[in-house]
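BUG: 3D viewer hangs when loading the predicted structure for this chain

Environment: internal workstation, default settings.
Expected: structure renders.
Actual: progress bar stalls at 90%.

Input used:
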Amino acid sequence: MESMKHTIAELSEHFNSKMAEFQKQLQTSSASATSPASTIATQFSTFRSFVLTALEGLQKQLDVLSRKQDEFEMRSRKKILLIHGVQESKNEKMSQVVTKIISENLDIPLKEDDISHCHRLGHSRSDKPRAVLVKFKNFFSSEQNLVFQVRPQEFWDNPVRVSHQGTA
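Structure tokens produced before the viewer hung:
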């Protein structure tokens, strides 16, 4: 998306410089011959307004595409939770661990089938456990929507923290 914006900006800058150059040449040549120069000047003016309108339209389309892409990314993040503070163990099955944590800590009934995929983020470190990213198959039902309304004080006595990825 950024490369498209950059390309449009370069195109616009190049077009404006070439048109300014052409206009300067046109003004110097108009002193010698009036009739052909006025025809060229009219054509130039028409062409210039057409190209500027086209560039403006492209910029608007690019802005719309950029907004739509942002909306799409935000919508896809609605299905993602990050869970911090979950101790690591060898041969852990993350979907079972996540189901247990959400069921026990949030009192939300969750089945492994509700999870699309989950995994730990980053490299393993001995000083603290890695966060767990959980992507659900569907957006939560109204009962499960409580996951997004969890307040930090609900976990004061618990090292496990849940955060919603949709606000990034």
